[in-house]
Amino acid sequence: MKSIREIPLHGRTVFLRVDFNVPLDKNGNITEDTRIKAALPTIEYILQKGGKIVLASHLGRPKNQVKPELRLGGPAKRLQELLGQKIYYVPDCIGEVVEKTKAGLKNGEIMLLDNLRFYKAEKENDLHFAEQLAQNIDVYINDAFGVIHRQHASVNALPSLIFDKGIGFLMEKEMEALDKIIKNPAKPLVVVIGGVKISDKVEIINNLAPMADIILVGGGVANTFLKGLGQEVGASIVESDSVSKKQEKTNYLEVAAGIFKRFQTERVELDVILPNQEPLHKIQLPLDFVAATDTKEGTATKIIELGKDRVAPDLMFLDIGPKTIKLYQEVLTRAQTIFWNGPIGLFEMPVYAQGSKSVAESIAETAGYTVLGGGDTEVVVDKFDLKGRFSHVSTGGGASLAYLAQKELPGLSALE
Question: What is the pLDDT of residues 210-225, one digit of tens each?
């Protein structure tokens, strides 16, 4: 796989796949432009080398329809402000106007296509659509790490049609950061897994558990583990089963129990013990929770200690409890490498935010190498004003999980 540094760019038209899937408010204004800024080093490099740039991205979930609120005019305007030069925004991806604008580009100029996902053919990895995107393109560069796990036309089919192809600086940065987790990480390696669903975390847990010293679990993922192991969790959110696109039903309670038992006998070589003087588990689940009967503001909460307190059928586990916070903090302070994906509780509400806040602060304070992956994880970081305190924050949630799970990634295989 080539780096952009290895490809001649002067006088050539470069199709640059970026990830401008930025958050918008109800009026369509950009509320956070990190992903646009992340693409600037590659864009500026191409301009400095005298290339012509055709930028392409998706935005939101238009479901194969042209939705005015999901056009890329806003990102075009923001990019123009950041670069201080005109961006030729075309309200389409293919067709006569697009090709005319391409043909008119001079060295050092940029055009931005409209939302690729307005076309059903993009998500279908349609070759004919890719051929239209490829017209008059000399070089293909993928700098959209967040979509490398998608088998879409602009990610997979298109680069197969272009001889000179490679990755941009953001892609290099992402891969280098994640490689430090899966290729000879500094020990101890601690993995923190939270969020609601276990279904998209199974592969990464299975892949990282053998190399990690310990995996700390929270959020709805912990509930699924506990229920799978026969623990009462009341009305807590649990992902019990799911049907994939291929209509294959998976019982995630059984999957979770199987993962836990697979690593149950492995010794954890950390100078930390549980309050009951027992050793840590490789897959370490919470010891206690902050629970309530609903999530309405003002609802009374109580601490539930597992194995000691009765869990009423109407109680929901909404955050990890004080004993778990203390334990997780002790583990994290000993880590040399940390990967964190997913909130530890219902952090959006202050009464249930302490678990996520404590974990985030502990990771931020460690002197080790720290990587965060997943959009909601970044939201936690922003909420508690911890931005800039981590070694690397991935721009791709699902992509980072797929990369760490070492799955085949269509966006990278197409560049080989």
Answer: 999 999 999 999 999 9
133 & 213 share domain: no
- Using CA atoms, how far apart are residues 302 and 3, in angstroms rounded to an integer? 54
- 239-280 residue pLDDT tens: 876 544 554 678 999 999 999 999 999 999 999 999 989 999
Q: Are residues 247 and 157 in the same domain?
A: no
* Domain co-membership, 162 together with 180: no
Active-site option among 35, 78, 102, 357? 35
Q: How far is CA 23 from CA 8, 65, 74, 120, 392, in A?
A: 34, 19, 11, 22, 20
In the set 50, 375, 383, 389, the catalytic residue is 375
The total number of structural domains that make up the chain = 2
User: Is pLDDT of 378 > 90?
Assistant: no
**Residue 147 DSSP label:** G
For residue 411, tell me if it sits in a domain.
Answer: no
Active-site pick, 197, 262, 383, 389: 197
35 in catalytic set: yes
From 50, 60, 73, 398, active-site residue: 398
**What's the confidence (pLDDT) of residue 241?**
60
In which domain, by residue range, is 238 found? 176-404
